[in-house]
DNA sequence: CTCCCGATAT
DNA sequence: ATATCAGGAG
């Protein structure tokens, strides 16, 4: 089957299964989403939400994070992995926000990529989910795993996967596509033990059809 | 490529 | 015990 036709069917079926698929990180403004997304690296969104519930009470502006003590900030996010690195990223990123952008989160890919701890995945998420600016497709662990299993892409590096996906997913679906794959990745197409028998797209999946 | 790294599922 | 979790930097 043509890969674009496969993408169309995957989106149709997953949309029926997850009609309310959207970002799982909780946030009230662009700054909160930026921080949450930096924190979410190699960590479940659920735990990020637990930590940020308290964190965003304590730190309300970019300036609050920028002038925070690094040790204290690290301690406040300790239950998340990579907490020392992430504390540095957040403090430094917020210092730049205050210095260059009046404490606000910039609206361009180029500006976001200058922030430490921010690459295309994080920038795509922030732009799309706060400003409605869809420049690409965020490739996280779920988008990567499912795209590879289904057989939508051949590449192994996130940036190359994003490029391949941008060529086969219609642009008007760039926003919903990663949300659908993430929802399916968390509930059915699990990393360790995928529940293939209950999967609504198993007939379209290379990983399934090649072994069954 | 390695390193960062705690919490949870298997 | 080990793999995995909405990755990114050096």
Can you describe what's shown?
There is one protein chain. With 212 residues, the protein is mainly α. It contains twelve helices and no strands. The longest helix has 19 residues. It is elongated and about 55 Å long. The relative contact order is 0.14. The mean pLDDT is 97. It binds a DNA duplex (10 and 10 nucleotides) through helix 2, helix 3, helix 6, helix 8 and helix 9.
Shape: elongated
Q: Catalogue the unreliable spans.
A: none
Write down the Rg.
Answer: 18 Å
Run of helices and strands: HHHHHHHHHHHH
Question: How much helicity do the residues have?
Answer: 55-70%
Head-to-tail CA distance between termini: 17 Å
Strand content: under 5%
Give the overall average pLDDT. Answer: 97
Helix segment count?
12
Tally of extended strands? 0
Strands, helices and their partners?
Elements: H1 3-17, H2 30-39, H3 45-58, H4 62-66, H5 70-76, H6 83-101, H7 109-113, H8 120-131, H9 141-150, H10 158-168, H11 176-187, H12 206-209
The chain binds a DNA duplex (10 and 10 nucleotides) through residues 23-25, 36-38, 40-48, 78-86, 89, 116-119, 121-122, 125, 138-143, 158, 178, 182, 185-186, 190-193.
What does this entry show, briefly?
The chain is built from 12 helices and no strands.
Features of the shown structure:
DNA-binding; mainly alpha; 212 residues
């Amino acid at each position: 089957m043509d890969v674009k036709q496969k993408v169309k069917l995957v989106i149709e079926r997953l949309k029926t299964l997850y009609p309310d698929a959207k970002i799982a990180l909780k946030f009230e403004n662009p700054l909160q989403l930026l921080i949450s997304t930096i924190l979410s690296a190699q960590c479940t969104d659920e735990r990020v939400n637990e930590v940020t519930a308290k964190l965003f009470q304590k730190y309300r502006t970019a300036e609050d994070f920028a002038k925070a003590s690094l040790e204290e900030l690290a301690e406040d996010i300790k239950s998340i992995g990579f907490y020392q690195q992430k504390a540095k990223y957040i403090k430094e990123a917020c210092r730049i926000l205050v210095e260059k952008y009046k404490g606000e989160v910039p609206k361009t890919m180029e500006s976001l990529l200058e922030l430490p701890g921010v690459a295309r995945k994080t920038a795509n998420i922030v732009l799309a989910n706060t400003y409605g600016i869809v420049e690409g497709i965020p490739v996280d662990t779920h988008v990567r795993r499912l795209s590879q299993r289904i057989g939508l892409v051949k590449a192994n590096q996130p940036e190359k996967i994003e490029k391949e996906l941008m060529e086969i997913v219609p642009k008007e679906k760039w926003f919903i596509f990663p949300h659908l794959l993430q929802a399916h990745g968390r509930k059915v197409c699990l990393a360790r033990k995928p529940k293939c028998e209950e999967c609504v797209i198993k007939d379209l999946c290379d990983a399934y059809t090649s072994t069954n």
